[in-house]
Specification:
Radius of gyration: 16 Å
Bound molecules: zinc ion
Order of helices and strands: EEEEHEEHHEEEE
Largest sheet: 6 strands, antiparallel
Number of helices: 3
Number of strands: 10
Number of domains: 1
Length: 213
Amino acid sequence: MALKESRLDPARASFDRVVESGCGFSHDVLRGQTLRIVDLEGNQAVDTLFYDRLERTNRYSAVDTIREQGNVYLTTGTRLFSTEGDVLLTIVADTCGRHDTLGGACAAESNQVRYAIEKKFMHNCRDTFLLEIAEHLAPMTKRDIPANINFFMNVPLTPEGGLMFDDGVSAPGRYVELLAERDVTVLISNCPQLNNPCNAYNPTPVRILVWDA
Ligand SMILES: [Zn+2]
């Protein structure tokens, strides 16, 4: 945990939008700009991916990020590495303290395996990602959706090496803030999951802010 507050004033943000649960979102964040994601009501899971804006095959790499920092959890100071070894963004403030990048995005398949066969048709993050890229980020396809970050989601690693989806550690108003180290595109699925205690079975909206350099 590396709790750190930001001094940036929301009134001075150049971009400010609420993203409802179950919705996708994509936006370009330019080098030097700061992106903040606010967990408005607490314990939401914000499935997030980052891409080099000009070369989207150069994208967030969970494996490289974990290896470079020697830690599976993301927090203040974490540099988010790309598949080409570039630093896409750095987490510069964090009032939640811990974010997951191992649990992956919920999907029709995982809903069946984790919960029940009839959950296959429930709304899920992978479908939201696919819809968002089809509508706004052509010519990206499903091969461009790699392992993602789950901001605010609590996925503790057990001593045996297993993963648990656990009660959240976030709370209303907590946020994470990232400085763009190059021009990036952010892709978000604000998770609609109704079967997972990580969000108290209650998906809620988040707020996205961007400040200019
Ligand atoms: Zn999800």
